[in-house]
Amino acid sequence: MSEPVQTPLTKTATFPTRIFSGIQPSGGLTLGNYLGALKRFVEKQDEGIETVYCLVDMHAITVFQDPVKLRHQTREAAAGFIAAGIDPTRSILFNQSQVTAHAELGWIFNCIARMGWMSRMTQFKDKAGKNSENVSLGLFAYPSLMAADILAYKATHVPVGEDQKQHLELCRDIAIKFNNDYKVDFFPVVEPVIEGAATRVMSLRDGTAKMSKSDPSDQSRINLTDDADTISKKIRKAKTDMDPLPDHIDGLKDRPEAKNLVNIYAALAGHTPAQVIADYAGAQFGTFKPALADLAVAKLEPITTEMNRLMKDPAEIDRILGAGAVRADALARPVLEQVYDIIGMIRSRPV
Ligand code: AQP
After folding, report:
1. How far is the CA of 185 from the centre of ligand 1 (A)?
2. Quick check: is 2 in a domain?
3. What is the mean pLDDT of the chain?
4. pLDDT of residue 132
């Protein structure tokens, strides 16, 4: 069966096409991160587009991270990127805190973004819950640092999962306001790239909640570090309803758990959900779940095995991230220096 059609990227008028995206090392990578983001990152790299990928460790600390675990998770995420197909000689791969332009531009964008814009961010509301007085200021300012991540590279396209759409709209608003305030055509207005059958992978325990690395229940997600047996067990135990799969895609409406498993199957197989339904029309979950488990193991096991191999040499991972940071800095620093000039900061330190 054929792969779902990929939409060609629309070229912006004055800016060359450049992709930027990132993932927080706030836990282990999940199947959601893989299908919604990482798989797309690899595709864009393989299409020959200039790609800059970042482990956003400064975003991760908007919620407290144990320092030992954060270092481990950052290396593990880097291993996940490489194991999934990111080639650090073709893509730039680094961790955010090694390129200080992100934090510097993030501050400038804190002075561009409006409180009202930030207050409307649903991810902040979801993460802060009823505790908004007690969460970090960084969590509130998260989208403005994210805009800095992207715009420090004048990136034009950002592959992400569905949940990041609102943050990217804010990034566009920041670029437009900066350009208008300073009467320049300096920052591109970025395009989100939200593609594939699994732009929003849901929890295996609740088809209405996003699969997330920080969900307290490990059963809710598939981690890229899970072994074959664990993946199979989690899929077989995934919450579903009692009905067989429908014979038409419309039959998945109001069946969030069934829809989620079909979407995961489609994304892993490179099919559309309609093709999966055509193949499994009328099948019971007793048939569909083992097929999905086998497919998930076949696709994920090679990645897990390679991650484990890479994690045996943490110094090599650090070297790759350091080399990526040098390349990233060479792109971001001149952009930032121009921003300082545009906004009227004196830059007179002897070099
Ligand atoms: N469930 C998901 N389905 C599809 N895409 C997803 N992404 C995350 N979860 C899903 C995409 O992965 C990229 C990196 O996300 P992130 O780690 O920066 O932040 P997040 O979206 O907040 O991911 P988590 O797993 O939920 O992290 P925590 O629990 O730390 O908040 C993004 O492109 C995102 O869309």
Report:
1. 31
2. no
3. 95
4. 86
In DSSP terms, 23 is beta-bridged to 55
Q: In whole angstroms, what is the distance from residue 47 CA to residue 44 CA?
A: 5
299 shares its domain with 171: no
- Who lines ligand 1 at CB under 6 A? 23-24, 26-27, 30, 32-33, 36-37, 160-161, 163-164, 199-201, 210-214
Within a 10 A sphere around the Cβ of 164, how many other Cβ atoms? 22
> Within this chain, do residues 329 and 269 fall inside the same structural domain, yes or no?
no
With 0-12 CB in 10 A as exposed, 13-18 as middle and 19+ as buried, what is 334?
A: exposed
Is residue 332 domain-shared with residue 271, that is, in the same domain? no
Q: Specify the number of domains making up the chain.
A: 2
Cα(195)–Cα(72) distance, integer angstroms: 30
Q: Which domain holds residue 266?
A: 218-310
38 pLDDT band, cuts 50/70/90, is: very high
Residue 38 CA, ligand 1 centroid: distance in Å: 10
Total-model pTM: 0.94
pLDDT of 10 higher than 90: no
Active site amino acids: 127, 210, 213
Per-residue pLDDT reduced to its tens digit, 101-125: 999 999 999 999 999 999 999 999 9
DSSP code, position 192: E
